[in-house]
Amino acid sequence: MNMKKFLTKDTLILVVLFALMLAWGPVYQKFFPQPVPVKPAMAGIVTNAVVAASAIPAPVAAVQAPSVPAPVAELRQPSSIARKPEVLVELTNALVRLTVSSHGGCVKWVELPAFTATAKDKSPVVLDFGTVPALAYGGLPGLDEFADFKVTVVSNGAAARIEGTSASGCRLIRTISLGNRYEVSVDDAFSNGSGTVLALPAHSLSIGSMGMLPGETTMTGVDFLGIDTLASVGNDGVRHWSSKRWFSGDLTLVDFFQEVPRRGGGCVGQPALTRMMPVTVRERIATGMTWVAVKNKFFVQILQPKDGASGCDLIVERTKGPSEKAEESSTWMAAATPSRVAAAVQFPERMLAAGETYSRSLSYFVGPKELSSITPLGLQKKEVMEFGMLRLVCEALVWSLNKLNWLIPNYGIAIILLTLIVRIIFWPLTHKGTESMKRMQALQPQLKTLQEKYKDKPQKLQQETMAMYRENKVNPLGGCLPMLVQIPVFFALFSVLRSAVELRYASFLWVADLSAPENLFQGMVPFIGAINILPLLMTVTQIWQTKLTPAVGDPMQQKMMMWMMPIMMLIFLYSMPSALVLYWTANQVMMIIQLYWQRRLKKA
Predict the structure, then answer these.
(1) So where are the chain's domains?
(2) Which CATH class is domain 88-262+275-386?
(3) Do 110 and 126 form a contact (C-beta atoms < 8 A)?
(4) How far apart are CA 357 and CA 22, in angstroms?
(5) pLDDT per residue over 256-302, tens digit each?
(6) Residue-wise over 94-104: b if at least 16 C-beta within 10 A, else e?
(7) pLDDT tens, 538-570?
(8) Do 89 and 153 form a contact (C-beta atoms < 8 A)?
(9) Which pTM was predicted?
(10) Which is nearest to 136 in space by CA: 48, 76, 224?
(11) 596 phi and psi, to 5 degrees?
C-alpha cells in the first residue's frame, strides 16, 4: 500500500475523531465527575428538607427475607409506639410472590420468579421496597404504617386477610388477593365501632420505592427511574414526571430538588445556589388522579383506586456527592440525579357515623414493563412504556420481536430477522433511491457545465438544473427517501430496545446482555474502560456501504460524508444497548448485499 496515499487529510481526520471518541469518557469524568452513589434515604419526607433516620426494631418473620443486597437506608418518621414482633407471610401464584407484613399491613417486597436477579445469579429478581413499603397507609393514627395488624393467609396462599383497630375505635379489614398474572386486588373496609361519629382524616396510601437493580446499566440522557400519573380531570393524558412534554414549561422530578427560582430553567441564567439541595423531596400534586405508577428500567408498580384519588405525592431521592457538605458551597451539586422514586395517592377526610362501614377497592399491578401484560389493564396504562408518538410502530416491533423469538428462541436472531423483514418492506424504496442516485451521478458532467455557464445567474442555474432533472426524470431527493422513511423505525427501535424487559440478560454470541453495551474486558482497558465490538463492526460496514453507494456532489464532501457519518454513528451508538447496535449493523450488511445484487443485475 502507498503510505503517502494512505496518510491523506481524510485519514488524519478519521484518526483524530476516533482519538477524541476514545478520550471523551476520561475527559468528561475528569472535568464533570459524577457523584459516587452512597447509601441514600427516603420516606417520611418533607419537601426540600432532610429528616433524621430512626432505628427500626428487628423483625421476627414468619418467612425468611430473600437473599438480595440490602436496600438503601431510607428515612421515615420515628414511631413512639411499642410494636409487636413483625410477622411476614407470603402470597404466591405462578408469576408473583408477595411478602406481606403485620407492621402496617403492607407489602415489603415482591419476588418475580420469571426473571433472574442478574445474568449470573439465577435466583428470582426481588423488588425490595425496604422501609418504604407498598400499600401502607399514612396519616391514620393506629391504622397507618406504624400500626400492628393481624395477618391471616387465606385462599390457599393466594390472599391475605389483615385486621387492625385504632384506639379511637376505627377498624380496618383489608383483603389482598393475587390475580392470575401480576395483578393484585386490594379491598379495604373501614368500620366505626366507637358508638359516635368518627372522622377518618385525610390520608395517603404508598407505592413502594424503586431504584436501579444490581447489574443494570444506565444510559446518558435517558431517565429509567420515573413516576407516571393519569389525572382524572382534564385531557392531558399520561404525565411522565421524569421528563418535560414538548413545548411546555413542565417541572420534572429533578426540578423539585431546586429552590423555586431555579426550577424549570436550563444551565444558563439561573440564580446561584443558596443552600445544598436536600437528599429527598416530597411534592404534593393536588389534582384528582385515576392511577399513579412508579417504575425503574424494567419493572413497574401501578396503583389505581377504583373511585380515584384526590391527589398524589411524588417522592424522590437523589444521589449525594461523596464530598457534599451543607456548610461548604463549593461541594454542592448543581443538579440532582434521582436514585430512588416512590409515590403516595391521597384521599380526603371522611366522616363515619356510628356503626357505618366505608369500603374502598384498589387494583395494584407489580411486575415487568411488558406490553402484553400491561395492555389488558386499559386506562392508558401501557403509556408507562413511554413509546411516545411512535407508539403504534413500537407496539408492532415488540409484537414482531416476540413472535420471531417464539419461532427461533433467541432475541439476537429475532433482531436480525426483524432487520431482514424491514429491509424487504423498504426494498422497493431503497432500490428506487439507489437508481435515482446513479442517474444523478450520470448527470454530474452536465450539471457542472450548467454551473460554469450560469455561475453569475443563480436563479437561472436553478431553473435550468430543475429542467434537466425533469427531462431526465430524476428526483434530486430520491436518494434521501429510503433513509428518511427508516428514521421513524430506528427511533421506534431505540424506544423499544432501551428498556425491553424481554432483552434483559438475553445473550447472543459473545454478548451477555442485549439490553446493555457489551462491556468486554471492563476495567482492564486504559482510557475507555471496556471494549464494545459491535459498534466497531457497525462502523466498518457503514464505511463499506457508503463506498458502494453512488455518490453525487463535491468529491471532498463525498469523502467527508464517507468518514464523518460512520464516526458520528460510532460515537452515538458506542454505549447504547447491544440490541440497537446489532440491528443497525445487520441493516448495513443487508444494504451491502442489496447493492452488490443490484450491480450484478446491471452487469447481467
Answers:
(1) 88-262+275-386, 406-603
(2) mainly beta
(3) yes
(4) 67
(5) 888 888 887 665 667 888 888 898 999 999 999 999 999 999 999 99
(6) ebbbbbbbbbb
(7) 888 888 877 776 655 556 666 666 677 778 878
(8) yes
(9) 0.78
(10) 76
(11) -65, -35
